[in-house]
Amino acid sequence: MGQLDGKVSIITGGGSGIGKGIATALAGEGSSIVIAARDAERLTATANEITASTGSDVLTVQTDVTDEAAVKRLFQSTMERFGRLDILVNNSGRFDGGRIDELTLETFAGVLSVNVIGPFLCTREAFKIMKDAGGGRIINIGSIASNRARQFSAPYTTSKHALWGLTQCTALDGREFGISCGQLNPGNVAVERRVASGGSPASGLDMGPEPQVETADMARAALYMATLPPSVNTLEMSVLPVGQLYIGRG
User: Fold this and answer.
1) pLDDT band at 250 (very low <50, low <70, confident <90, very high)
2) Residue 189's CATH number
3) N or C: more exposed end of the chain, with fewer CB within 10 A?
């Protein structure tokens, strides 16, 4: 028996990286899975992998989380297929940066659109379903940048500070309905783009290769948050390599 038997989970950005790891972990505990992202081919490949390894029922929905209509279709498709929603993981993210005087409005707004507007749109739709169902859990994938800035990362750091505000507001608004919301803040994670870059960051001052944790480590943390009793919430959790600069980071 899995800890999430009978549950249904949506993971945005679920086709790769941290999202794929979390989707696999939740499926391994019995949850039916909905993975959403823009890359339909990658979603299909990931769904096949998850089903093969866990036997879980996986629905893929090609989704741009900044598109309000597309987000509504994601949640409609979930309810049509499964009839319920228990867990939402807002994982989709965009990474970009540069020195403030060299940033374009397009870059700054683009990062905030994916990292803040996207989670808001998904949270709003999930909240409606969970409120009527008597509860649910929302997990936002933030960053240690939500608490500690790094140089040349204004768009990304600003977006993660904003996400932390959204997390707290969602937790407050959800209290009376049994809806919990918490934020998982990863440090450096060995996702595909980081491996390809040799460990260098995608946003911020490039300080060369940095310590990294594996996606499986983040998935275990998310699974812990997802499997707590409904009366318990992990409001904030930071998971990062022991050797990574964070307190006093440069």
Assistant:
1) very low
2) 3.40.50.720
3) N
